[in-house]
Amino acid sequence: MGRAPCCDKANVKKGPWSPEEDTKLKAYIEQNGTGGNWIALPQKIGLKRCGKSCRLRWLNYLRPNIKHGGFSEEEDNIICSLYISIGSRWSIIAAQLPGRTDNDIKNYWNTRLKKKLLQCLLLDGSCNSTQDHPYSSSVNILSSSGASMNSTDSPCSQLPNPNYAVSGAGPSIYHGLEEFPVELHELVYGNQQQFGGLKSFNGMDMANGGYVTNGAISSGESTTWGNVSSLVYPQLVSELETCLQSLPQDHSSFEVSSYFGPQ
DNA sequence: AAGTCCCACAACCGCGAGAGA
DNA sequence: ATCTCTCGCGGTTGTGGGACT
Predict the structure, then answer these.
(1) Which residue is nearest to the C1' sugar atom of C9, using CA?
(2) Where would I find the Myb-like domain in this sequence (predicted)?
(3) Domain boundary among A11, A43, A62
(4) Which residue is nearest to nucleotide B11 (CA to C1')?
């Protein structure tokens, strides 16, 4: 038995919202609130929409003080550092960015920021400035955020310690990263030719800068770029192969085996 | 100019958590 | 303790528009 549908699918309109629907929904909520029941709300207003759809529309689009697009460098940094710390907990990340919605941030990450990071990872030495490198400053945020995130009056108090080790005992907050070493090993050693002759990563001596030992990240205080990128990197592994293939040959200057330590 | 591809964003879907009966 | 209902979240898909060929 599957889960009961939240609404009568046959009588529910799907797809883009019309201005009329927006107006109805916005006017009602501004006047009456949601009444604590999204499911019943569309019926009250006379909208042929699913309650969940109404909720999403309100939260992501109609709610006052919503900002769309135009993410600043600072917002980039916050998103990146929080993503490194807690993974794809978009609602928590959104809570740190006034006016931004989780959906917006998720889309932004998936479509742009992730690529931006990947690009930086693969461009040797060209991402040393904050301007070019979303993570060079996020590293600072990351290391400094430890204190604020643990303070009880901060919304971040519920966040795990950003210096969390990826492997080891306890529940992993880094969904999917548990498999990282195996996945990466296959990627790297299954594609020796692609990675051959790589010497540095992001302009750093990754052999010395990296913190990875046996696939685990050191849980120490240091948040070097090597450390940070190794946290983020697993998320991008599936895309790396494609990206590397599109790179010019002389761009491949990253010695993966050095960076990730002896196997 | 037309067709195709790619990207960004909006919206949907399914699941887990939590509250209340 | 269990069931039902709703909310909220994160992943995924659909679509429109711009870029490219």
Answers:
(1) A91
(2) 9-62, 63-113
(3) A62
(4) A15
Q: Which nucleotides of C are covered by protein (CB under 7 A)?
A: 5-12, 15-16
Domain around A25: 19-62
Protein side of the strand C interface (CB < 7 A): A 4, 6, 15-16, 34, 36-40, 51-52, 55-56, 88-92, 102-103, 106-107, 110, 175
pLDDT higher than 60, residue A25: yes
Residue A115 has pLDDT above 50, yes or no: yes
Q: Does the pLDDT value for residue A161 go beyond 80? A: no
CATH number at residue A97: 1.10.10.60
Query: Is residue A165 over pLDDT 60?
Result: no
Confidence at residue A123, expressed as pLDDT on a 0 to 100 scale: 63
Distance from CA(A208) to C1'(B9), angstroms, rounded = 41
Residue A141 counted as domain residue: no
Interatomic separation, CA of residue A219 and C1' of nucleotide C4, rounded (Å): 43
